[in-house]
Design a protein that fits this description.
single chain; about 25% helix; alpha+beta; 13 strands; 4 helices; 6-stranded antiparallel beta sheet
Length: about 200
């Protein structure tokens, strides 16, 4: 069996390095190779189903989303603007991508629904790096304070995480800012590795 050919056919994510590429006896290596290929294919099918069922679309930060609720109640913000009191979205992230460093002008609470673990990295008000992991065994929610830069990724290979994000006051793209790699590293040089990993420019 040409395992390399099999893997290339069924493996859509070149960024993923399968376990089987480590040095192992040939038969064991082939078994692991096939197992990894099957895991990636299963994940791809699950992701495609969720994107279809939840009507998700690509998000500028990475991943997929769909806004499911926008409150008809409104609030007046500290700068005098009127905006929706609350918005909710589904957000889907896979292990072959990431949610890039960004910040918004509201508090954002993440709720874990299904899939694998997801790690939300936050640069806090005091400049420290806080990494919070949500998973099937808990914790199941965490809140990113207004104005903090944050990013997210799925640490385990060949899986995904489905979460919900609640933003209050309600999310507006006018209050969404994708971070510049160069500017963010200049502002927080001690977190250069994390910033480099989760930015695209």
């Amino acid at each position: 069996m040409d395992v390399n050919a099999l893997f290339n056919v069924c493996h859509p994510f070149p960024e993923y390095t399968p376990r089987a590429r480590t040095v192992r006896p040939a038969d064991t290596r082939d078994q692991w190779f096939i197992a990894d290929c099957v895991a990636v294919r299963r994940m791809t099918q699950d992701v495609e189903r969720l994107i279809s069922e939840l009507q998700l679309m690509p998000h500028p930060e990475g991943g997929y989303y769909n806004e499911t609720y926008r409150s008809r109640s409104s609030v007046i913000t500290s700068d005098g603007r009127r905006r929706s009191a609350l918005t909710n979205i589904y957000f889907l992230l896979t292990s072959n991508t990431f949610s890039a460093w960004h910040r918004i002008d509201a508090d954002e609470t993440w709720h874990f629904y299904s899939g694998g673990d997801i790690v939300i990295s936050i640069i806090t008000d005091d400049g420290s790096l806080d990494e919070r992991r949500l998973s099937t065994t808990g914790p199941w929610q965490t809140t990113v304070p207004v104005g903090c830069y944050f990013a997210a990724h799925v640490p385990d290979a060949a899986t995904y995480a489905l979460v919900g994000c609640s933003v209050a006051p309600g999310f507006e793209f006018s209050g969404f800012e994708l971070a510049s790699r160069e500017a963010l590293i200049k502002q927080y040089p001690r977190h250069a590795d994390a910033i480099q990993r989760f930015t695209r420019d």
